[in-house]
Design brief:
The protein has 561 residues and is mostly helical. The chain has 19 helices and 5 strands.
Length: 561
């Protein structure tokens, strides 16, 4: 690309202050990092028709969560394919394309919400937006490593810190726009005052001589409403959750900010190095820092690339599944046991705190790795992570038996520590790559390694949604069996032998069954994620082994000087 986007056009003069690159890198990453706030959209998207609660034809949580997964998959694919292109055209051109894809993806996704076409949401936010994520992610990383050869960990921490903090910036915007554009559906009255009929598992009422579908909000559903309202019967298809309008607004904002940041990029001249700095001796002190470079294609022939791939993939898998359903998980584990504390706003704030600790962890752990080494840093991630993931089922079990805030505090602290290491893993991996493979092609090698993120983007949400669905199905069956058949029929307008149809239509849920369950019945909701947490601990153990056997690259793979 020529003109303003040319790589040669952005080579800095010798007097350029390298710290000016940090705001540009942060600008791009703060925008694309809002992908971590995806779970804030979940409650609205699964109530697109019902608005106050899910209607029969509303999208499922699993279907919506997979949009986030597709975005992460295309992030990795775009980063892998654009690695060499980035080295050829420079970060400005890549940043401009990233802005167009990320902002445009929101616009196309908004059209999908408006039209009710889920595939458009997948195409826009998932595919197009995901490509913008990948291009925006890699464009500043290799640039900062070149500007800060003396502090690689800190440099990558600066750039990738923004990605971790994107949800913190996005949270107030998403919540604010959703609330601003929200329109409550038509309220028909309390459940006792409205004559409800069940047809094919759906609840309908006679409105002006026409049978219209409705949704029923019970006492256990109020806490999960996007904007709290009265219990009772609401007319489906009226009102708006505000998601489409929010997508359009965010798309425009992100495009403008990313374009400004892309044009602020500069590259150091060939041979540049910080004044007074000399590279340390090769592999000094067992730190595995090489002075040689490995070509992008040659790196794929080394065992070190695949060890690092496993390290990144399993570290990300363990965290990304939780990220995809963070708001929902907090509500389900503690919303029923501690409703006075954990409401919708508390859960949304939890997502904000995840972003904060994710961001802080990226800078802290990446900077720490400059002193203790990358390998030792990942050892800490995996050993401590295994213990923390195993603690989550314990806190969920204890709060169910003894609903006091101390178990919430323990859960909160454990997950915040997990997300500092999740973010720290992302921020430390580019410096680890530069140590192992040299700095010349670190951008391209990093792009290819991000296919591990794509894989994790599938494995994490797949594990957590599949295991959760199985747990929900089993819990509903057990609760229904324990419920008086007469009361069941009176509540749902159908016999218990129609349970599968009623569940499919979202008429029967765990929350609604708990309202009619026998006294003393234990709510199974807090334990829905236990199996997932144990699985994540196993994956971290595998990653621990891959990191433990890391060694310097064989000299036969080095480029000739």
């Amino acid at each position: 690309m020529g003109g303003l986007l040319s790589k040669h056009r952005i080579v800095a003069k010798s007097s350029f202050n390298r710290w000016l690159i940090a705001p540009a890198a942060l600008g791009i990453h703060l925008c694309i990092g809002s992908v971590y706030a995806w779970s804030l959209f979940n409650p609205a998207l699964i109530k697109r028709i019902g608005v106050v609660t899910s209607a029969a034809d509303d999208w499922s949580l699993k279907g919506v969560v997979w949009i986030f997964t597709v975005a992460i998959v295309f992030l990795g694919l775009a980063a892998a394919l654009a690695g060499k292109w980035l080295e050829d055209v420079g970060p400005r051109a890549v940043g401009v394309v990233a802005a167009a894809c990320w902002g445009g993806g929101f616009i196309v996704g908004g059209l999908g919400i408006t039209s009710g076409q889920l595939w458009l949401l997948y195409l826009g936010y998932g595919v197009i937006g995901g490509c913008g994520l990948g291009l925006g992610y890699v464009s500043p990383v290799s640039t900062l490593i070149r500007w800060f050869p003396d502090r690689r960990g800190m440099a990558t921490g600066i750039a990738i810190m923004g990605f971790g903090g994107g949800a913190m910036l996005g949270k107030p915007m998403i919540d604010g726009f959703l609330e601003f554009y929200y329109r409550a559906p038509e309220y028909l009255g309390s459940s006792d005052a409205v004559k409800l009929v069940t047809e094919g598992g759906r609840r309908v009422v006679d409105v002006a001589g026409r049978m219209r579908e409705v949704v029923v909000v019970g006492p256990n559903d109020v806490a999960a409403m996007v904007v709290p309202g009265p219990e009772g019967v609401y007319l489906a298809g009226t009102g708006s959750v505000g998601a489409a309008q929010t997508f359009f607004t965010l798309g425009a904002i992100y495009f403008i900010v990313m374009m400004i940041a892309a044009f602020a990029y500069r590259l150091p001249a060939d041979g540049w190095k910080p004044a007074g700095w000399e590279p340390p001796a090769e592999n000094e002190g067992g730190a595995m820092i090489t002075h040689h470079d490995v070509d992008i294609d040659e790196a794929l022939k080394t065992p070190q690339f695949y060890q690092l791939w496993i390290v990144l993939c399993f570290n990300v898998t363990a965290g990304i599944g939780v990220l995809a359903v963070a708001k929902t998980m907090m509500t389900e584990i503690f919303g029923t046991t501690l409703p006075a504390i954990v409401d919708v706003k508390f859960a949304a704030t939890y997502v904000l705190m995840i972003s904060l600790f994710n961001m802080v962890g990226r800078f802290f752990w990446a900077s720490t790795s400059d002193y203790i080494g990358r390998k030792n840093t990942y050892h800490i991630f995996f050993v401590l992570g295994i213990l923390l993931y195993c603690s989550i089922p314990f806190f969920a079990q204890r709060v169910n038996a003894d609903p006091v805030a101390v178990w919430l505090v323990g859960f909160y602290a454990a997950t915040m520590l997990i997300f500092t290491m999740y973010g720290g893993g992302f921020a430390t991996i580019p410096a680890y790559l530069a140590d192992i493979f040299g700095t010349r092609y670190v951008g391209g090698i990093h792009g290819r390694l991000l296919t591990a993120w794509s894989t994790a983007g599938v494995l994490g949400p797949l594990a957590i949604t599949t295991l959760r669905e199985n747990a929900v199905a089993g819990a509903i069956k057990r609760l229904a069996d324990a419920t008086d058949p007469g009361r069941f029929a009176a509540t749902f307008g159908a016999e218990i032998d129609q349970l599968d149809v009623l569940v499919e239509a979202k008429t029967v849920t765990i929350a609604k069954l708990m309202e009619i369950a026998p006294v003393g019945t234990v709510d199974p909701t807090p334990s829905l994620y236990n199996q997932t947490m144990y699985l994540m601990a196993v994956l971290l153990f595998v990653a621990l082994l891959a990191n433990a056997f890391m060694r310097p690259v064989d000299p036969k793979h080095h480029m000739q000087r």
